[in-house]
Amino acid sequence: MERTHPQTIAFIGLGQMGLGMAARLIEGDFSLTVYNRTTARAEPLVAQGAHVAAQAADAVEPGGIAISMLADDAAAEALFDDALLSRLGPGGVHLSMSTLSPATVTRLAARHTAHGVAYVACPVFGRPDAARAGKLWLCYAGPADVRPRLEPLLNVLGQGVRDFGEDPAAANVTKLAGNFLIASAIEAMSEAYALAEKHGVDAEQVHQLLSQTLFACPIYQNYGNAIVAQRFTPPGFTLRLGAKDMRLVQDAARTAEVPMPLASLLGDRFLRMLATGQGDIDWTGIAADQRASSGLT
Amino acid sequence: MERTHPQTIAFIGLGQMGLGMAARLIEGDFSLTVYNRTTARAEPLVAQGAHVAAQAADAVEPGGIAISMLADDAAAEALFDDALLSRLGPGGVHLSMSTLSPATVTRLAARHTAHGVAYVACPVFGRPDAARAGKLWLCYAGPADVRPRLEPLLNVLGQGVRDFGEDPAAANVTKLAGNFLIASAIEAMSEAYALAEKHGVDAEQVHQLLSQTLFACPIYQNYGNAIVAQRFTPPGFTLRLGAKDMRLVQDAARTAEVPMPLASLLGDRFLRMLATGQGDIDWTGIAADQRASSGLT
Amino acid sequence: MERTHPQTIAFIGLGQMGLGMAARLIEGDFSLTVYNRTTARAEPLVAQGAHVAAQAADAVEPGGIAISMLADDAAAEALFDDALLSRLGPGGVHLSMSTLSPATVTRLAARHTAHGVAYVACPVFGRPDAARAGKLWLCYAGPADVRPRLEPLLNVLGQGVRDFGEDPAAANVTKLAGNFLIASAIEAMSEAYALAEKHGVDAEQVHQLLSQTLFACPIYQNYGNAIVAQRFTPPGFTLRLGAKDMRLVQDAARTAEVPMPLASLLGDRFLRMLATGQGDIDWTGIAADQRASSGLT
Amino acid sequence: MERTHPQTIAFIGLGQMGLGMAARLIEGDFSLTVYNRTTARAEPLVAQGAHVAAQAADAVEPGGIAISMLADDAAAEALFDDALLSRLGPGGVHLSMSTLSPATVTRLAARHTAHGVAYVACPVFGRPDAARAGKLWLCYAGPADVRPRLEPLLNVLGQGVRDFGEDPAAANVTKLAGNFLIASAIEAMSEAYALAEKHGVDAEQVHQLLSQTLFACPIYQNYGNAIVAQRFTPPGFTLRLGAKDMRLVQDAARTAEVPMPLASLLGDRFLRMLATGQGDIDWTGIAADQRASSGLT
């Protein structure tokens, strides 16, 4: 039987998000060669028909498409090195979907350009279940001329794509702004519901009212439900990853000289949670710290 | 022609919100006697058929219903004094819709009880246009037995009523929690969009993405639009009133021993804006202060 | 044998500070009639020769001098009521040494004036051992004409007196400013020494260097020693009292529209400590909270 | 005439501090070869007898001593590169007196070791006038065996040396802790004195009281005098440099997972001042920002 999409795509990085996205692509009839530092993570994809590469550079093909979903800046800089990029070479495209710092993205994009590879930043909003279901929101920024070639992939991965122009860093600034808004909403609900509870008011009732009226949107509904239910495991997105993103926000604020007192407050909140051994729960776990600070048990 | 609702209702407090609510009630075929410190404010209502009382106590009738929408705790405590309450007397009901501190509400409710008057706390969410259109969200708490009698009024004023039990203070805690969430969202957007702008990213595009997906709800859409348009006048809700509410939040946090770092941050933000003469713009004007602090002009 | 100071002085309020000050005055050959809500606290003073009054008003004499050292604004307002003041009457002087809010002081002073009593604000700096040894620092503000009459008392109680003019509230603003500086220094050392310790650097060495050079002054030396030794009991000044003072600072900041982000940070720190049951240790115990937040054990 | 100290010392970095230190050393009869990116800065030293090197590597001698006083981590990493270190070589000692991040120091020390060069961290406390007068406080950490050889230099530069062991990073952590305490004291005084002033109390009187009693130490006296006099130029230490140090503090806090809310608050204060074009005044200028935020003019 013929594949709808004949070309093989390299998919690099199989964390919770990457795994779901890769599975979704295979279901969408794309042929994938995957790479992950820990190869065992690829097993479910192999069962779906994916090939596995022993090295990241082996996954890519000259002039082909590579997608990456990596944990941090360091991983992106290490894997997309000169060796990989010279193999990917002219005509190659890197669809970089990780949450990275704008400064790193600018540096990476220049390195890609030097090898004739197009660097497209396309960070995503959504948790692992949305990744698996192709319901992500995508922030695209990079060379406009390669977008048609990527369109079939984007359509399978997301429920919508927004374009932020040709400068890849712009998409990552947008992603950081979004994650900052999410963390801020978690902080605000954590404080508000602790206040209600200590005044003897049912926090769930308060939450129902607000999240069905003024704040009737996914972030308040989904995260708020977890907060009032005190359900912080299994994590959809860990505090440790949240802490990393808050550092990226704070670094971007420094670079641009933007005082962000709420980002600073969140940075300290996350640091306390890491220091006290709570890095592996979901980032809505901010509410657990707020409850403890309020003497609620 | 017969009125649908034969009894006259006292309506006390004709600020931006009160004026809209009173007009809405008259349209809903209720007969009102209104009171406001500055009588001239009542003129449009008189044109609609309302009576005007020279004193608050003159507006109420023994065993009747009084609605109040006042600026602060001090006004509520001053107007609903023993003289007014003894006139309202047994069988009387006070539907208190102002944003007041839970501590004041508890004190007021006791004073009402001593006169045989039912105190119902029913603070509202919504701006003046929602008040005028009967599209408020209502937080009801107080004696359950008087609710049927109030139902026709509530139906005309709001698009929905939530019940928070018999303790009136619970409704006011809920209202403060809600206003705190709103102010937090304004702060978060103000910081995020300044970050985007200083990185050369179009803040409006970032806002459109986020407010149509993860944050697709009235607060982010309406307030966010004002923020990216830098449209802070005329005010729907002034910074001065926001500062007052944040003080009530902070006082409630103290009383209950709940550290609320985000509320503290907002408290200082509002204080700076009052100190620098910006108290009369809309509270989305936080964004103007954030822009100035970021060196954006 | 003749007393050096023939007139009997009323001394009201026998907390840790008041007890030391009263003992010091008796040693300085003053005759005291003391009052405390819990009479048993007066026993050591009775052994020194003091009389005990059953009611505060009984302690004062027409035209005499009353000294007070009370826990909070509420106690001062309750005890110095019209009954006591009408007994103290014209020619009477109240040397009010408690830490009170400027707003309360202004209200109290007016009440005194109505009875012909001079209100002198004279809050103090120093811990109980300094009170007992007559080594307090005194902030005087009030009618200048009564100061000569108070001079012998002031000389026995303090090692120095500063005059802040005729408006009593000025002395209390100064006292709050001072306590705020102290709490700020405790916070700063707590954070700095936790940083050093987590980097494997001996916090005591860091403290010795800094407190013997740039910060060679009593607050850094005494409080810093307690911090590095983690010695928070017995308290010289409890966190609960510190929390009260921080509230007074924050209230004074609101009234005057002065954003004080560091005071807000301290307010939240204190609230967390109260909420988690640490209100009765010394206020240097902020360092214990900082250590816990840093994962130090 | 014979020099007391026959060996020539390399002195690298002639900012405000470095210039004063170098002049002091020449007066102390040390022979210097100096290097600065902008050679013209060396002129007053040449007049005192110093030699000037065109490149940093030309200033050092095999097995000799190099002293550096540089603006930031980047300068230290760039100048003390493999070329310079291979020339300095075995038996060489680098007395590194700049304020650097602990992480950079650890990396630099390893690079020195690889070339057989001893890396001694010795950051200093004191402003340019103290540098010129040999009145600095020195924080020494590094190989103990080279200290005797450095002793004559240390004695001329400082009024005291504290030893923080063999790990060079420890001295830099101590320096950061100290600068953080200084910035915290400036912040605290700025807020306290604005509070006093807006309550109509003379801030200078408050400052005199506190800085002559509880806070009778150089930092409160010197910086406090500048604050109450609103004398922020010429700068002894610019806000821009303070901002850099606060970033180092915040980075060290992240690395060690220590939430430092006061450091975060200062970080945002500094960012606002940079963003609004106030980076070149003295860092006591925090008080100017506090006054503006308080509506004081």
TrEMBL record, chains A, B, C, D:
UniProt superkingdom: Bacteria
InterPro entries named among the record's database cross-references: 3-OH-isobutyrate_DH-rel_CS, 6-PGluconate_DH-like_C_sf, 6PGD_dom2, 6PGDH_NADP-bd, HIBADH-like_NADP-bd, HIBADH-related, HIBADH-related_NP60_sf, NAD(P)-bd_dom_sf
Molecular function terms from GO: NAD binding; NADP binding; oxidoreductase activity
Any Pfam family matching the protein: NAD_binding_11
Domain 3-hydroxyisobutyrate dehydrogenase-like NAD-binding: 170-286
Active site, UniProt feature: 175
GO biological process: organic acid catabolic process
Keyword tRNA-binding belongs to the record: no
Keyword terms: NAD, Oxidoreductase
SUPFAM superfamilies in the cross-refs: 6-phosphogluconate dehydrogenase C-terminal domain-like, NAD(P)-binding Rossmann-fold domains
Gene3D superfamilies listed in its UniProt record: N-(1-d-carboxylethyl)-l-norvaline Dehydrogenase, domain 2 (1.10.1040.10), NAD(P)-binding Rossmann-like Domain (3.40.50.720)
Protein name (record): 6-phosphogluconate dehydrogenase
